[in-house]
């Protein structure tokens, strides 16, 4: 049973446009969420996080939105750049700082 | 300040063998977690170490074991390797146990033949 789901295996976006990556979770006890970006042959790189006491967090071109009632979060990238092409993982923090990851979404930004 | 480093980068073993993977945490970080990432999946939590003690374990059999050293570096040992153990093994460190953000190393790609 997947507690964190990223239902879109891939997403293709034109350079300069908005990329929206989605993530759903089932465990209402999750109270902290993170997004990681992963290039081939590298480890995941931390992008942005959000606590359940907030519904939005921004960092430059990256914004994460959290809808607790829907158990849904999304990552917006505006404007998208070719260097953003990577695999994006959504993760939730479980007890003891264990991270529970989704399966990832491959983002391709076309120039 | 150096980030998280892992060695070796790649490793090929045969079924039944044993393997040791190594991780150096980011400077000042006292908590290390290990994850297994199979092809096409997200990383899965194996276990976490805090100040040389295991602090939580995922759904992995006892043949997966670990150590953390006084300098906070860590090892992952896997005995009696199986074909399904082929994966990318990721180490992540965090500043302290209560930190929610973990910083990952580049991983070790293990292939079991």
Describe, in plain words, how this protein is organized in 3D.
Chain A is about 0% helix and about 55% strand. Chain A is mainly β and about 110 residues long. In chain A, the strands form two sheets. In chain A, strands 2, 4, 5, 9, 10 and 11 form a six-stranded mixed beta sheet that branches. In chain A, strands 1-3-8-7-6 form a five-stranded antiparallel beta sheet, with no helix packed on it. In chain A, strand 4 (about 30-40) and strand 5 form a beta hairpin. In chain B, strands 2, 4, 5, 6, 9, 10 and 11 form a seven-stranded mixed beta sheet that branches. In chain B, strand 7 (about 65-70) and strand 8 form a beta hairpin. The model of chain B has no long low-confidence stretch (mean pLDDT about 95). With about 110 residues, chain B is an all-beta fold. Chain B has strands spanning about 5, 10-15, 20-25, 30-35, 45-50, 55, 65-70, 75-80, 85-95, 105, 110.
Give a summary of the structure in a few sentences.
The complex is a heterodimer of chains A (111) and B (113). With 111 residues, chain A is mostly beta strands.
Structural class of chain B: mainly beta
The level of helicity of chain B is under 10%
Largest sheet of chain B: 7 strands, mixed
Uncertain residue segments of chain B = none
Q: Spell the H/E element sequence of chain A.
A: EEEEEEEEEEE
Blueprint (SSEs and pairs):
The complex is a heterodimer of chains A (111) and B (113).
Chain A: E1 4-5, E2 10-14, E3 19-25, E4 32-38, E5 45-51, E6 56-59, E7 62-67, E8 72-77, E9 86-94, E10 98-101, E11 105-110
Parallel strand pairs in A: 2-11
Antiparallel strand pairs in A: 1-3, 3-8, 4-5, 4-9, 6-7, 7-8, 9-10, 9-11
Chain B: E1 5-7, E2 10-13, E3 19-24, E4 31-37, E5 44-50, E6 53-57, E7 64-68, E8 74-78, E9 87-94, E10 103-104, E11 108-112
Key features?
heterodimer; A: 111 residues; mainly beta; 6-stranded mixed β-sheet; 5-stranded antiparallel β-sheet; globular; B: 113 residues; 4-stranded antiparallel β-sheet
């Amino acid at each position: 049973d997947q507690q964190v789901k990223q239902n879109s295996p891939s997403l293709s976006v034109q350079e300069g446009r908005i990329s929206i990556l989605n993530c759903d979770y089932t465990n209402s006890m999750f109270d902290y969420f993170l997004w990681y970006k992963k290039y081939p042959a590298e480890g995941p790189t931390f992008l942005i996080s959000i606590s359940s006491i907030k519904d939005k967090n921004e960092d430059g071109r990256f914004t994460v939105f959290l809808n607790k009632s829907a158990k849904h979060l999304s990552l917006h990238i505006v404007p998208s750049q070719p260097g953003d092409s990577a695999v994006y993982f959504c993760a939730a923090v479980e007890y003891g700082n264990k991270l529970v990851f989704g399966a990832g979404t491959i983002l391709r930004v076309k120039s | 300040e150096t980030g998280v480093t892992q060695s070796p980068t790649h490793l090929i073993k045969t079924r039944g063998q044993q393997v040791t993977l190594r991780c150096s945490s980011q400077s000042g970080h006292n908590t290390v977690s290990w994850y297994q990432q199979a092809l096409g999946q997200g990383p899965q939590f194996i276990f976490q170490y805090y100040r040389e003690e295991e602090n939580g374990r995922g759904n992995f059999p006892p043949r997966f074991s670990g150590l953390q050293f006084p300098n906070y570096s860590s090892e992952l040992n896997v005995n009696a390797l199986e074909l399904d153990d082929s994966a990318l093994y990721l180490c992540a460190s965090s500043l302290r146990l209560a930190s929610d953000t973990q910083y990952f190393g580049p991983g070790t790609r293990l292939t079991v033949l």
